[in-house]
Amino acid sequence: MDTLPLTQLRAPSGDSTLMSWYKPHRFVMAATDTVLISIVVILTIAFRLGDDVLAPSNAGVAPHIAGGVIIAAVWLAFLDAVESRCRRVIGAGFEEFRRVLNASVYTFVVVAIGSYLTQLPLLRVFFVVTLPIGAMLLLGGRWTVDGGRAVLRSTERAARAAR
Q1: Once rounded to an integer, what is the mean pLDDT over residues 19-44?
Q2: Would you list the DSSP string of the chain?
Q3: Residue 137 forms part of a structural domain
Q4: Does the residue 126 lie in any domain?
């Protein structure tokens, strides 16, 4: 069975634009989102606990880590649910950024409601520090990755013109 190289894949809608840039770009965006969210959650926990994070027998660290992991997982799920990495939204400027901000707000609304319903005390620092810094990091990451997307697409156009 013959397989087409990535540069020969066509968009599912049948249009003639090549899609070789999309899959690697989507992967880079997802990896960037994951790294940035992980960084902000880890820094928030370290900021909240200070030197207690490194204490080997500190049982108070586990709930913070569990809360951070839950927040990160929910945040990544919402970024996917609002289709912030959708092909028609990538590089669309305001719409892409709006979806990233919506996912961030949805995450913290769901986490706040969940912590209230389960009577788990969620630290205010997650709301005060993680949401604004995380949202800014995600927007900055998207802006940076979108610059790479432009390079991929221009390379693709040059390759197409050379044929």
Answers
A1: 87
A2: -----GGG-B-TT--S-B-TTHHHHHHHHHHHHHHHHHHHHHHHHHHHHGGGGG-TT-TTHHHHHHHHHHHHHHHHHHHHHTTTT-TTTTT-THHHHHHHHHHHHHHHHHHHHHHHHTT----HHIIIIIHHHHHHHHHHHHHHHHHHHHHHHHHHHHHHHH-
A3: yes
A4: yes
State the distance between the two ends of the chain, measured CA to CA, in whole angstroms.
25
pTM of the shown model:
0.73
Res 69 pLDDT > 80 = yes
- Residues 6 or more apart whose CB falls under 8 angstroms from that of 108 comprise 126, 127, 131
Give the domain range for residue 34: 20-157
Is there a domain that residue 72 lies in? yes
**142 assigned to some structural domain:** yes
Would you state the pLDDT for residue 7?
Answer: 43
Number of domains in the chain: 1
Which residues lie across from 18 on neighbouring strands?
10
